[in-house]
Amino acid sequence: MTDKLIHATAADNQIRCMAAVTTNLVGEACRRHRTFPTASAALGRVLTGGLLLGSSVKDLEKLTVHFDCDGPIGNIIAQADPYGNVRGYVSNPEADAIEMNERGKFDVRAVVGGGKLYVTRDAGFEIGLMKEPYRGMVPIVSGEIGQDIAYYLAKSEQVNSAVSLGVLMTVDGVEDNGSENGWREPRTAAFSLDQLRVAAAGGYIVQMMPSGDENLAAELERNISRAPYATDMVRSGHSPSEMLREVLGDLDLLVLEEKEPRFHCQCSRERALLIISALGREEVQDMIEKDGGAELICHFCNEAYQLSADELGELLVQN
Ligand code: ZN
């Protein structure tokens, strides 16, 4: 199934919803960054959350979700635009909690710990349009990512939201033992990262508009509490709109927009050269003489750019 991102309303615009299936793009992010299982789950949830929040920003805007964690994972960052492009990384891709949590899921909270959650919207830097970025901050209250984003939306944007984000990982060549997440319990069997696969990833955000009817809010709350986890719905093949129908129950759903989201980074060889040339002549000269070139690795996508001494020499001629 291809990844999909939708934006919708329900109950005559009183409810706003976003939902996404992100299995492929989360898989690509985890492959690029070589994340361990729990770090993969954390990164996948933040990428999906960023994408859902980013789907509501305006043209040319960018949304950054930054979990500044005091747990072993360090920072988790996702940056999304309104067109469905997202990129992101974690400081420590090897952060991992061997024990599953009490619900048999990856113990994301154990690698996140506490800390702060920042959400930044900024616009137009690429085209020289300098608008003050908007930045909101809340403490990390749960460490499970979805609940933290819901807390941010309630505190910082005054919107009551239900947020469900999930990532299901499997190990190729290891028999599914029927446990909810397909992992052997306890997680002792050795595996290599190349066997690790994102089997399902996705999520939704359902928001009650402040003007919404109280009875409707109560009905929505009941429906949400009965709905299956996002991961389980993606795993059983639900599309984003089917996911929302499951969550909304009998409430009518109107899909406004559908996109194909992807992991996409704006870095390039040209940009890498620009960064090097900004370092100044002496430093570039040094790189040529001492290192015979330079290597630049993009944090966001882990792409490595090998710049030869000749290419660096060109920079010196141009400047
Ligand atoms: Zn990149």
Describe this structure in words.
The protein folds into 2 domains: 260 residues, Hsp33 domain; 50 residues, HSP33 redox switch-like (CBS domain Like, Alpha-Beta Complex). It contains 10 helices and 13 strands. A hairpin with a 4-residue loop joins strand 4 and strand 5. The protein is globular and about 70 Å long. The termini are far apart. It binds zinc ion (ZN). Zinc ion binds next to loops.
Topology of helices and strands:
Blueprint: E1 4-10, E2 15-21, H1 23-33, H2 37-54, E3 61-69, E4 75-80, E5 85-90, H3 108-112, E6 115-123, E7 134-139, H4 146-156, E8 160-171, E9 196-208, H5 214-226, H6 230-235, H7 240-248, E10 253-259, E11 262-263, H8 269-277, H9 281-291, E12 293-297, E13 304-308, H10 309-318
Helix pairs in contact: 1-2, 9-10
Bound molecules: zinc ion.
Zinc ion (ZN) is lined by residues 265, 267, 298, 300-301, 303.
Helix content: 25-40%
Named once each, the bound ligands are: zinc ion
Q: Helix and strand succession?
A: EEHHEEEHEEHEEHHHEEHHEEH
Helix count from the secondary structure assignment: 10
Oligomer, anyone? single chain
Please state the second-level CATH architecture of the largest domain. Answer: 3-Layer(bab) Sandwich
- Spatial arrangement of strands, main beta sheet: 7-6-3-4-5-11
The end-to-end span amounts to 49 Å
The proportion of strand residues reads: 25-35%
Largest sheet: 6 strands, mixed
Overall shape: globular
